[in-house]
Specification:
By secondary structure, the protein is an alpha/beta fold. The chain folds into 2 domains: 267 residues, Rossmann fold (3-Layer(aba) Sandwich), CATH 3.40.50; 192 residues, Rossmann fold, CATH 3.40.50. Helices cover 37% and strands 20% of the residues. The strands form 3 sheets. The chain has a 9-stranded mixed sheet, sandwiched between helices. The chain is globular, with a radius of gyration of 23 Å. The structure holds adenosine-5'-diphosphate and alpha-D-glucopyranose. The site of adenosine-5'-diphosphate has 18 residues, from helix 1, strand 13, strand 14 and helix 14. Alpha-D-glucopyranose (GLC) binds next to helix 1.
Length: 497
């Protein structure tokens, strides 16, 4: 079986969030169980700065984007630690930019950039020696791939047997653009209707993927349920609900070689369940130095690492910390970048509680690892969370997550109660309602548990032993691929009445 994974970012080449972690590790996990994967992504400036060797593939072609033909120059590399070939679609004007998608505002031409990318993926796949059985696209940036497969490339010999999968990592980002961008896609205007590519008068890339894909997946079973109604579906709940027969929720795995306290080159001292305290102490010393403190703080370290977006509950976090920081029970460390309003609010918070609240604004891979290693408690007060990876990294690094019961956090974190402690399943502290009092209460429970040495030791040891590697989830993807290929080919798409 040959699978083409199509993603707009993949670690270690370019990353803004968890999608990159998934796209950078799922293909290798599939390869390990006998499924041949190839990955394709844009050749951003960041790819060439990633430190991984990238070479020209010796392939270039013109891609029709509206009335113009844009050049796609292909580069290639290999996913580190695997034999997975990676292709990069290059076009300097589109991808040689300071950030992947824009800053406070998206780039004005993101429709054009990802139309070029998607069309180039089809052209590239059609030119490679062997055809692909599955075209597996991730998020809105790959949403046009299933439509291209069905509408423009149905007759192409390379795609005669290929089926498409659309994976939703986040319903809140749909790739919506003004209707005239439809002309850039090269797809007949008749498909710009409310049943197919249009949504509230706009061209919607994610909806397109959901409508035309042979199968849909999302990154946890709970999120698969949440997106079938409002508000989880973010306006596309009707589309998702109409396709539940082909929808599966598969929880993400983690790259256990990149995120492993026993081998992580980004932390000062390697550790396992046997010497957690020594590992954490060393990480705390290194973190204190990076934060400009003379010595590590003896209080429990409570952290947050993530995109500063509404999704992550940053407002709750700031509200809760401003209320409890004064009582001195914990040291808070926050690393994030995103919404300028959130960034400013967090900077102000740090200024109000020097020595108790540290805030670093920016995207820092090394600090993300160091904070996980140094942390006792990791906060994820998400408004919604399709899967979430930070809680899984926290487990591995012996930190206990405090999470809101939403999406993948429900599927991965078990609240600590006398019963779950006795059963050995407890793995975090969970609160339900989206309010800062709930978060405060859950953190309070976590700090109480931390003060009880035996309980904490039990919790930390058991989460470190949990297996969130890709093995089980990659098998589920493989089963799904096999299942789709055994189905009769989908009938050609009908136009809405
Ligand atoms: P999401 O994909 O919604 O951003 P996840 O929990 O799935 O959330 O994944 C987030 C990933 O991005 C993790 O690998 C996390 O360490 C990383 N990350 C988020 N913000 C930062 C940051 N400011 N610096 C470094 N890494 C970050
Ligand atoms: C998204 C989600 C996050 C998920 C990640 C990888 O960005 O916000 O919950 O873990 O994708 O699937």
């Amino acid at each position: 079986m040959r699978v083409l994974q199509v993603a707009s970012e993949a670690a270690p080449f370019a990353k803004t969030g968890g999608l990159a972690d998934v796209a950078g590790s799922l293909p290798a996990a599939l390869e390990r169980i006998g499924c041949s994967c190839t990955l394709v992504m844009p050749a951003y400036r960041q790819v060439f700065e990633s430190g991984v060797a990238i070479e020209p593939a010796g392939v270039a072609f013109d891609v029709p984007v509206g009335q113009r033909h844009l050049r796609a120059e292909i580069f290639r590399s290999t996913l580190p630690g695997s034999n997975v070939p990676v292709y990069f679609v290059g076009n300097e004007a589109c991808f040689d930019r300071p950030t992947l998608y824009g800053g406070a505002h998206d780039y004005h031409d993101n429709a054009e950039r990802f139309i070029l990318f998607s069309r180039a993926v089809m052209e590239l796949a059609g030119r490679l020696e062997q055809p692909f059985d599955i075209l597996h696209g991730h998020d809105w940036q790959a949403g046009l791939i299933p439509a291209y497969r069905q509408l423009l490339y149905a007759e192409h010999p390379a795609f005669a047997r290929s089926a498409t999968i659309q994976t939703i990592h986040n319903m809140a980002y749909q790739g919506t653009f003004w209707h005239w961008d439809m002309l850039l896609t090269g797809i007949d205007w008749k498909y710009f209707n409310w049943r197919q590519m249009e949504c509230h008068g706009q061209l919607n890339f994610l909806k397109t993927g959901l409508v035309f894909a042979d199968a849909i997946t999302t990154v946890s079973p709970t999120y698969a349920g949440e997106i079938q109604s409002a508000p989880g579906g973010c306006g596309l709940e009707g589309v998702v609900a109409s396709r539940t027969d082909v929808l599966t929720g598969i929880v993400n795995g983690i790259d256990t070689s990149g995120w492993n306290p026993q081998t992580d080159p980004l932390i000062p001292r390697h550790y396992s369940e046997a010497d957690i305290a020594a590992g954490k102490d060393a990480a705390k010393i290194a973190l204190a130095a990076r934060l400009g403190h003379a010595a590590p703080d003896p209080r429990p370290l409570v952290s947050f690492v993530g995109r500063l977006a509404e999704q992550k509950g940053v407002d709750l976090l700031a509200e809760m910390i401003s209320r409890v920081a004064g009582d001195g029970r914990a040291h808070f460390v926050i690393l994030g970048t995103g919404d300028p309003g959130h960034e400013e609010a967090l900077r102000r918070l740090a200024a109000s509680f020097p020595g108790t609240v540290d805030v670093v604004i920016g995207f820092r891979e090394l600090l993300a690892h160091l904070i996980q290693a140094a942390s006792d408690i990791v906060l994820m007060p998400s408004r919604f969370e399709p899967c979430g990876l930070s809680q899984l990294y926290a487990f591995r690094y012996g930190a206990i997550p405090v999470v809101r019961a939403t999406g993948g956090l429900v599927d991965t974190v078990v609240d600590t109660t006398p019963a779950t402690l006795a059963a050995g399943t407890a793995s975090g502290f969970v609160f339900r309602d989206f309010d800062s009092r709930g978060l405060e209460h859950a953190l309070g429970r976590a700090l109480d548990a931390h003060a009880d040495v035996a309980t904490w030791q039990q919790l930390v040891t058991s989460v470190m032993q949990q297996d969130w590697s890709w093995d089980a989830s990659a098998r589920k993807y493989l089963e799904l691929y096999e299942q789709i290929l055994s189905r009769p080919p989908a009938p050609p798409p009908e136009l809405a009445e």
